[in-house]
Each structure stands twice: as structure tokens, then as C-alpha cells.
């Protein structure tokens, strides 16, 4: 009976490990995966994978080309991160198009292309600023100065605390910003 429990415990541990690893890779190559998903959703609705030349053409239509003076403009309305990705993909679009044409998932295709240019998987979308109204005052007071500075930086308010030298200065500013967020959202604290 104990051998059965040990085996089931081992299986549960392995499953938890697989879930943790898959979540770690979910944030990897997020900009590239979004661009590949956008291209395939817009251009390809079939179940079978497209041909490599077709995928290259779709990448050119999305990103644009830079060949001499006669280059074509890409899709309008791309974000800043997508533009940076297009700049990285342009010289190695075949490295991305080949795995996609073989039916490989976008994450794996981006990881393969990243072997030629690391910046492809290093691009990340900016995180939304933290919601201070969800934090308790006690939690803010217990935070380290580094964490308080990071919160101010994420909110774009780091310049408001130029003369801050004590932890209480940072805590007071974060509390004040918390009150402002609550007032803007119509919440009572």
C-alpha cells in the first residue's frame, strides 16, 4: 500500500513540476508569439500548415520590407514592441517561417528563431502598474525601500520622491498615491 502511495505522490510531484515549467515558458517570447498568432489568424484559417514561402510573404506584409528604396510598408497600428520584433525578424524571417510551415506551435517557432537572434525572445510587453488600492496600509509599511522604489517607478512617480532619504518618506508617498488611486476609482479605503 505504501508503494502505491509513493508512486501516486511521485506522479503528483511530476505533474506540478510540468505545470510550473509550462507557466515559466508562457511569458517567454510573448511578443513573438503574439505576432505569429496575429499573422496566422489574419491570413491562415486552414487546418493544414501553410507553405514556407507563404509564411515569409505574410511576415513581409505584417512587418514590411527594407530592401533598398523600394521597400514596402508593413501593417499599420503595430505597437512599439511589435515594431522592434519586426526589425529583429527581417533578416532571419526564414528561421521563423520554416517551423511555422511545419505546423510547429508559435512558441517553439519563436524559440528556434531566437537561436539566431536572442532579442526575439527578450522582448516583453510592459506590465500594467500595480493597483495600490488592493494593498493594505500595513503591507505597505512592512515593505522594503527597494520594493517601494520599484512601485514608484512602475507608476511613473519616481521623480516625486527626489529628496526622500528615509523609509517613512517613501511609505508616505505610496500611501498618498494609494489614496489618489482610490479616489480616482471611486473606492473607499
UniProtKB/TrEMBL annotation:
Name the family.
Answer: Belongs to the ARMET family.
State its location(s).
Secreted
Which keywords does UniProt give here? Answer: Disulfide bond, Secreted, Signal
This protein is called Mesencephalic astrocyte-derived neurotrophic factor homolog
Q: What is its main location?
A: secreted
Is Disulfide bond one of the keywords UniProt gives this record? yes
Under Pfam families, the record lists: ARMET_C, ARMET_N
Gene3D superfamilies associated with the record: SAP domain, Saposin-like
Per the UniProt entry, the signal peptide is 1-26
Q: Which GO terms describe its cellular component?
A: extracellular region
Q: Which InterPro entries match?
A: ARMET-like, ARMET_C, ARMET_N, SAP_dom_sf
Amino acid at each position: 500500500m505504501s508503494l502505491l502511495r509513493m508512486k501516486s505522490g511521485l506522479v503528483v510531484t511530476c505533474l506540478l513540476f510540468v505545470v510550473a515549467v509550462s507557466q515559466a515558458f508562457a511569458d517567454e517570447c510573448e511578443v513573438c508569439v503574439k505576432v505569429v498568432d496575429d499573422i496566422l489568424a489574419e491570413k491562415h484559417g486552414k487546418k493544414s500548415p501553410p507553405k514556407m514561402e507563404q509564411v515569409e510573404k505574410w511576415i513581409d506584409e505584417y512587418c514590411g520590407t527594407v530592401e533598398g528604396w523600394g521597400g514596402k510598408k508593413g501593417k499599420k497600428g503595430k505597437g512599439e514592441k511589435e515594431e522592434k520584433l519586426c526589425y529583429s525578424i527581417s533578416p532571419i524571417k526564414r528561421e521563423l517561417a520554416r517551423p511555422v510551415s511545419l505546423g510547429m506551435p508559435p512558441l517553439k517557432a519563436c524559440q528556434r528563431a531566437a537561436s539566431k537572434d536572442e532579442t526575439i525572445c527578450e522582448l516583453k510587453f510592459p506590465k500594467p502598474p500595480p493597483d495600490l488600492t488592493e494593498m493594505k496600509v500595513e503591507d505597505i509599511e512592512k515593505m522594503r525601500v527597494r520594493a517601494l522604489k520599484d512601485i514608484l517607478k512602475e507608476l511613473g512617480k519616481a521623480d516625486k520622491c527626489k529628496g526622500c532619504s528615509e523609509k517613512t518618506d517613501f511609505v508616505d508617498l505610496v500611501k498618498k498615491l494609494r489614496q489618489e488611486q482610490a479616489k480616482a476609482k471611486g473606492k473607499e479605503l
